[in-house]
Amino acid sequence: MEIKGYLHLYWGDGKGKTTAAAGLALRALGQRLPTVFLQFLKDGQSGELEPLRRLGAAVLSGEPGMKFVFQMTEAEKAKLKARQDRMLREAVSRLPAEGRALLVLDEACAALQTGTLSEPLLRETVLRRPPGWEVVLTGRDPAGWMREAADYATEMRCTAHPFDRGIPARRGIEY
Question: Among 6, 15, 88, 114, which residue is least crowded by beta carbons within 10 Å?
């Protein structure tokens, strides 16, 4: 019997998209599923990454001190796109071609929206994944094809946030 993997989409303007993806990764690791957690557009400093590594996940991310995309020159954006395309290919290569596995693509929606990730590469990876792979996409505004293909779609909607009261992001809670 063939094992079916599903596509998970955590999206919206609310807090919790990456947290939900990390929670699913934790659960998968607890069941000994090969797991890759890839963060696009982030500097690799988020608090969830080191525990995931210690538990056996392969973690791929940006570099400390990387700029926001809106601060980048066109040359820097092109370099970032090439790097993120390479990271996606590497993430895929770290998972078995057969059997169950989890691939988290954190901030894939934003990477696609900012043009710092190749859409054909992402679509191919997501839509033609091996049968047993669970794939998670996160971000604020997913492409239409992501919503259509999602087996699980959870919208995180912000109704209150401390930032709105001038409270900055807190270590261990927001990052």
Answer: 6
- The residues near 72 (Cβ < 8 Å, ≥ 6 apart) are 80
* Interatomic CA distance for residues 135 and 9, integer angstroms: 9
pLDDT for 112 beyond 90: yes
* Token reading at 17: 């998209």
Where helices occur in 114-175 by DSSP H, the ranges are 119-127, 144-149
State the average pLDDT for the chain.
94
Burial string for 89-107 (b: 16+ CB within 10 Å, else e) reads eebbebbeeeebbbbbbbb
Of the candidates 6, 37, 43, which has an alpha carbon nearest to the alpha carbon of residue 23?
37
CB contact at 8 A, 9 and 112: no
Pairwise CA distance, residues 11 & 3, whole Å: 26
Interval 6-58: pLDDT, tens: 999 999 998 999 999 999 999 999 999 999 999 999 999 899 999 999 999 99
State how far the Cα of 19 lies from the Cα of 51, in Å rounded to an integer. 13
Kindly report whether the global pTM for this prediction surpasses the value 0.90. yes
3-class state of residue 14 by DSSP: coil
What letter would DSSP give residue 98? Answer: S
Q: How far apart are CA 14 and CA 168, in angstroms?
A: 15
